[in-house]
Amino acid sequence: MAYTIDTLGETETNIELLKVLVENSFDSILITDATTEGEVIYANNAFKKLTGYEPSEVIGKTPRILQGVGTDEKVIDRLTAALKSGTEFEGKAINYKKDGTPFIMFWRVLPIKVDNKIEAWVAIQRESSFI
Question: In the UniProt record, does the keyword Repressor occur (predicted)?
C-alpha cells in the first residue's frame, strides 16, 4: 500500500513521526505565524547548523534577521507578494549567518492551511553553492 501524508491521519503516533522527521531533517525548517510580521514560532536543529542561531534565539523574531546589505530586494518583494496572496514561494538570496558571514540561501515557503485559512508558514531552507 502506498502512503501519503493524508493517510497518516492525526493519531499521536503519526504526529510524533512528523516531529521526528522535522527535527532530524538535513534541511533547515523555520515556521512563522500568519501575522503580518511573520514571527518565528519554530526552528529545527538544522537551522542552527545553517545560520549559527540557536532556535531559542529566533523565536519571536522575524526571518529578516538573516537579511543584510547583499540581500536582493527583488527576491524579498517576490516573497512578500507570495505571502500577501497566500501562495507558495521559491527563491535564492544572499543571507547572513549569526557571525555576519554571507551565504546563498535557497528556500521554499509554503502556507499551512486549516479549513482554507492560513495558520502559519513553513520555510524549508538550505545553503546553495551558486546563485
Answer: no
